[in-house]
Every structure is written in structure tokens, then in C-alpha cells.
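Consortium newsletter contribution from the modelling node. Members have asked for a concrete example of what our holo predictions look like. Here is one, prepared for the flavin-adenine dinucleotide complex that several groups have been discussing at recent meetings.
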Amino acid sequence: MNGAESYYRATAPGDACAPLAGRQQARICIVGAGFAGLATAMSLMEHGERDVVLLEAEQVGHGASGRNGGFVFGGYSLDEQALLATVGAQQGRRLYQLTLGAVDQIRRRIAQYGIDCDATHGGIYLANWFDDPRVLDERQHFMRDHLGVEWQRISPADFAQRARSERYFGALYEQNAFHFHPLKYAQGLARTLQAGGIRVHENSRVVSIEALPRAAGGKGWRVATAAGEVLCEEVVVCCGGYLERLYPALAGAILPIATYVMVTEPLGGRMPQALATDAAIYDTRFAFDYYRPLADSRLLWGGRISVRSRSPEEVARLLYDDMLKVYPQLAGTRVDYAWSGLMSYGRHKMPQLGKLPNGVWYGMGFGGHGVGPTSLAGDVLSAALMGELSKVEQFAAWGLPTTGGPAGLLAAQMTYWYYELRDWMRQ
Ligand SMILES: Cc1cc2nc3c(=O)[nH]c(=O)nc-3n(C[C@H](O)[C@H](O)[C@H](O)COP(=O)(O)OP(=O)(O)OC[C@H]3O[C@@H](n4cnc5c(N)ncnc54)[C@H](O)[C@@H]3O)c2cc1C
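And here is the predicted structure:
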């Protein structure tokens, strides 16, 4: 196996952006070059605001954005029923539709800026793990009746043909969804930003964010790294599950939760034994598997969540066993890459978009379903930064409740085990 390096990093090492050095002035400084930070910068640029500096502690896409499953689909980490129960049918539907708009926006940016990111427009299947057709009936009806979205029903026999697995009991097909190489997309956005005049600096870990004293010229912020500083009017923190201790008022409102991915050796002629579709697949359990074929005939397989990171060997072993439960015909397949990534979860599982009372903006809490919502967050935050607050107000129902630190992590792990057990008893 290739150590801890991800398949994504191995196939897209990226062009280096120089670290921040010395003092810079900018109207807006964004901290964190994951999808949330990149999308905020993109929306600002597309609306004519180019006086922006984006600071990344490591490399562009170092966090969840460059390590994820690559599924691009509608919805949030909070499930649709809970979304509508919280804000009502009309507003819930509106918020869900925004995520479909975000999927279209990602598609548009890939085409408009010529981002080569292995985008595969084959849709996504939600496969039924349980021998109970009501699971799909209820989901299909809910999506149609409450959200106006038609997910096509695939019979068990048909789906067994496409997925080449006897493990499932039919599926729903989301045609408008797609999958891609997320790190190539992140790097493509960074290149586009730089070409458009936005300053992007890697290896520039922000160590402090301080309000400028009034005596030193009034309003604004000093955002400092080890080798430089940005003096700016607005600062936006987009550090996801990698925030650590940078800003305690934000860190106390998220839990960093790990999830795992592995990639097999190229399957070549064996691929059709495993998948007869170019769509991506996930299943109906709380603790679901998610997987998809890659352009070079490998299979990418993800799953599980945990409050701790595991070694690549351990991740590979766990996920390989999961894969064989669905594809026993792949026994003996070599695993070439395995890695972990951290997601950021708020207590309510919805994105946290807004401004602290002291004026620091934030965009985080996208959980395990963040590719679409981070793109949407970029629009919401950029509009707010340009003085248009109605979009960000739509997310005001989900603030920054404390997640309870280590006790919260323990509670999250126990909840996960509980649901895992419930799935196991149901099957
Ligand atoms: C393994 C895995 C699989 C997933 N699969 C999917 C999927 O298939 N589909 C989907 O929709 N979602 C998926 N998700 C979720 C999705 O990837 C995330 O919700 C989303 O990428 C979060 O983006 P972000 O910008 O908020 O955070 P991140 O991508 O984590 O970015 C945060 C960035 O901030 C930087 N940073 C942190 N501290 C500092 C600092 N002090 N100074 C400067 N920079 C700093 C980090 O280095 C990092 O690059 C998955 C997540 C994981 C981990």
C-alpha cells in the first residue's frame, strides 16, 4: 500500500502556491482552502470582488474536500424529513432546492473554467440494504411529494444486474447527481481564482485573528501566520473539521468526526464483475457504504464514522471486509490506498453560516454531505460580505450550540454504535 497518501493526492499533486510572506492588505481574508473557502472566494470573484486573500495551512484541498467520496448530490447532512420538521414544508423545500442549484453550479464551473476532474455524469443510486420495500417507497414518495424531486425506482432484479451484487433489495436512482475527483476540482478552483486575481497562499497556517485596535486605523482584522499577516476589513473562517484551536468560539460548536476511504488496484477486465454502471452507489443504512468506479478501473470504497483516526492499514482492513460483504467476487483484490478524513458536525447537522457578535464570519459544519452545500455556502457568504443578508438569514435557525467537547465526541460515538446496532438488527 502507498502509506497514508490518498489516491487523490497521488494522481493530482497540484501546483504549489507560495506561502504568505510579510504584510498584505485585502478587503476580505478567507481562512481555509477547502470547498467552503474556495467557493466563497469563487462567488466573490464572479461578482467582481477580487480584493481577497485565501490562506491555507497545508495545501489546497488538504482537508475533507480533497479526501472525500466525490459524490455530488442534493441535500444536507441533516436528512430531509428533519429539515422540513425544523423549518416547515415550504422553507425546507426551498433550502433543499438550493442544494440542487449547487450541484448545477459545480457542473457549470467545471465546464466554464475547463476543470479536468474526472466528472462522471452517471447519476447516483441509493441501494436498499434491507429486505423491506417500504424503505424505498417512503423515501421515493417523500422526495416527490414534499420536495418535487423524482427518484426513479429500480427493481431488485434490475439493480442486481447493474450493481453486480445480490446484497441489495432494489434502489432509487438520482439522475441529476454525479461524481468526480474532488482534489482535482479543488485545485481547478484555486487555479481559476489565481487567474482571476485572487491571492491564494498555501503552507500559511493562521495562528491568530485579532481585531485591529481603533487607534491603529479603525475597523478590521489582523490575520497572522508565522511568516506574515493580512490586514483586512472582513475575515471568514472556513476550517471545517481541521479548525483545532484557532478560534475557540467556533471550535466549541463543531465535532471533528473521522470517516474512511480506500481504493483498490486497477480491476481492468474484472471491473464488469463488480459494477456494470458508471454511477456511484450508497445504501440505506445509517452507517452506509459509499463507492464508485474510478476512471482508471479502480474501485473507490468509503464508509464508517468514528471519533478517532485509524492507520491506513487498519482502514484498508475494515473497508476491504465491508467490500467483500457486497462483492465476494472481489476476494483477493489488492488495496493500493487507504486514508481518513475529518468532517465537521454541528449538533444539528446543518451548515453553520453566519457572523459572530464580534464580526468574524464563518462557514462550517457541513458534515458528511458537504460537496453541494459548501458551493451553496460560497454564494450565501459572498452575498453577505457584499451586504446582502437575506441568504445567510435562511440559515439562522441553526446556530452554534455547544457540542460538549470530549463528552460530545463520546456521545457521538455511542450514537453511531447505537444506529449501527439498529441497522444490524433490522437486516
Ligand atoms: C472521507 C470523507 C468522505 C466524504 N464524502 C463525501 C461525499 O462523497 N459527498 C459529499 O457531499 N460530502 C462528502 N464528505 C463531506 C465533505 O467532504 C465536507 O463536508 C466538505 O468537504 C467540507 O469542506 P470544508 O471546506 O468545510 O472543510 P475542509 O475541506 O476540511 O477544509 C478546511 C481547510 O481549512 C484548512 N485549515 C484549518 N485550519 C487552518 C488554519 N489555522 N489556517 C489556514 N487553514 C486552515 C485545512 O487545512 C483545510 O484545507 C466527505 C468527507 C470525508 C472526510
